[in-house]
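As a next step, we paired sequence with structure tokens, yielding the entry below.
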Amino acid sequence: MVSLTMTSCVDTRKITFFENYTDTVFTALDRISLPNSIIQPNDMLELRIGGESESTVQYITQYFGASQSGALNCIVDADGNVELPRLGKLQISGMSRDSAADYVREKYAEILLNPVVTLRYVNFRFAVLGEVKTPGYFSTSNEKINLLEALAQAGGTTQYSRLDNVRLIKDVNGDRSIVTLNFNDKSILNSPYFYLSRYDVLYVAPSDKKATSDNVNRSLPVVTSAITLLALIVTFFRN
């Protein structure tokens, strides 16, 4: 009974998303641009190179060991370089994906006729930790994922989640920052951090009731044993 009393009183307002949102049939939200993801060391990139010189394109494709679809995988080394056939090492760390694709295209224009270069990230990963149902590290092939989708990947929040104290930890080429987000507030839907970047870590803090619940659950077996022992002693002396 003590455990039930201590852990059942949960303020639903604190665990409700967008608690201050008005009841309307339709609400237009702001247009939010996707993060301008910056290439970092250890990134794995999928590269597709084409051009009018078929023999050269075929050589490049074989060099990478491309799949049947023509996708070429390459890894950015610790110094921020990617090694490409006929070009050698190119420094692309710190560039955006589109800028890097244009840079590679310019380099291949010296040996290919009208080269076509497309580039995408293979390892779009993020972590969700703290008071969620299944915390962990997650990967997705979709480069567009928002905060709510990230929480859904982790099974969603619990009754002990502090939705007004969610931390987003970002790391871009060693420049780290922490952003505090409030999921109780409707403004989260228009936040510039609504979409995740690669390697983001989302931490959902537990409420004070979580600590109380854990302490009660740990203490309950001891209290129960003590009461049982006391009852046995009283029964023994009465007999």
Q: What stands out?
A: The mean pLDDT is 81.
